[in-house]
Amino acid sequence: MPTTGCTSPDDIRAAFSRAMSAMYRAEVPLYGDLLELVADVNQDTLAAQPTLADALRLGGDLERLDEERHGAIRVGTAQELSTLARLFAVMGMEPVGYYDLSPAGVPVHSTAFRAVHEASLRISPFRVFTSLLRLELIDDLALREMAAGLLAKRQIFTPKALALIEHHETQGGLTPSQADTFVTEALETFRWHRQATVTQAQYQQLHDQHRLIADVVAFKGPHINHLTPRTLDIDRVQQQMPARGITPKAVVEGPPRRNQPILLRQTSFKALEEPVAFADERGMAGSHTARFGEIEQRGAALTQAGRALYDQLLDKARAGLGGVPAERDPERYSALLEEAFRDFPDDAQTMREQGLAWFRYAPTAKGLEEGSRGRDLPTLLQQGAVQCEPVIYEDFLPVSAAGIFQSNLGGEARNEYGSNANRAQFEQALGRSVIDEMSLYEQTQLRSLEACEAQMG
Q1: pLDDT higher than threshold 70 for residue 299
Q2: CATH of the domain at 153
Q3: Which residues have C-beta within 8 Å of that of residue 196, sequence separation ≥ 6?
Q4: Which has the least CB within 10 A, 8, 51, 94, 337?
């Protein structure tokens, strides 16, 4: 809890999310067009599906829908990552999960900074997928040393932001005035910088190794590379994007369309080619491609058993492509996905009975009037004394994240990095352990059951 007189971390996070969205909208006008499309689709979907609106309201998700965003940022050093963790802590955001993207040819590993309690998520579900560049995966020693030297010279946080982070840590919070200043100063870390810190020749060397390496190393700051609103019907958004002048990627990442959505589905528009000025003697002009727009649809958070089944079926669908990238044959991949996922129950009740998803429980008016009267949970549910809805998935999928990254970095998947998961190395750089997402969903479900018990006696 914040010190008396201080702004709550939840409110700081909400203010930062709004400021980030406004900044990105000004920097990338297509993002504004995307917001308008998502808002229209969500409004139409809720009007056509009143039961969906009721379910979202029960879980506290309806109110947060329009505010929901996730962003992504990539940093280059352990110090940058650990300081970013301290910055996010001011906003009540903790690192959840470890993601290794190296098997997909992306030389980073990542975590997601977000709020961890459902009450905080209702206020602001803002989350940031945060990746650390893995210089050790660069085989060219001279290039690796050049990249390390460039990263060592930069400071991606403003002096005021660093001072306010330290003040928050020592004093237990920020006053409203300090919180406003913090949001303004923290935003600078995520701002786009047209001026590169490298010459055109250096940029080309980094780019030829991997576009993502150039994106991380060649600028004074990491800049937010996409910001993502949440839709209730991603297939409809995908279909309508071209009519709004937005070119979508060929494949929606994640599970196929279902009656009961699960986990996370994502699509995006292609990364923008933006003008940059290199650090050559005459400020030679060039271009850089990195920032894009993304849309997500979130479904039920799966248990360990549900996630194991999901991974098995996804692997089956991808294997059916015989090594051909999904982007090259999207129709076949979609058919393979739908075929594979016929083995995953497509209704909430069966998913609950088979222990495949986490649920949030609440007493109905009937249940509050009658009390539990010694009945067990299945009986209370059957008799309409308790209702339940799946817990919304708050995290990310490594295969989907890699698919989005590759699509917007250009080119086919690169396999030379192999599988190089190193959670211990990442946590050492982070300065703390990441949180297991499954434990958070389990706690959310348990708290809802305890609340039912308390209310129903």
Answers
A1: yes
A2: 3.10.180.80
A3: 203, 218, 219, 276, 277, 278, 279, 286, 288
A4: 51
